[in-house]
Amino acid sequence: MAFALLIAFVGGRASAKPAHAAHARVVVVHDGQTLWSIARNQVGAEGDPRPLVQRLIARNHLHDGIITVGQRLVVPASR
Fold it and tell me: Stretch 22-39: mean pLDDT, rounded?
């Protein structure tokens, strides 16, 4: 009985996770990086980094667009 309850609890916790959290990742800002360079790295040389830059700003509440070394940024999933 306790085993079944444990499985039910674990199963419930897994489904409580937001759908977007499974696709987001975290990057740590290194010296010389900008939002543009982080986005460019994510989308590749042929991709357009502008939409991801905007999503980075929104997702990380960067009202002024300034990032600092060591800062952790949530990189939203590609759309």
Answer: 93
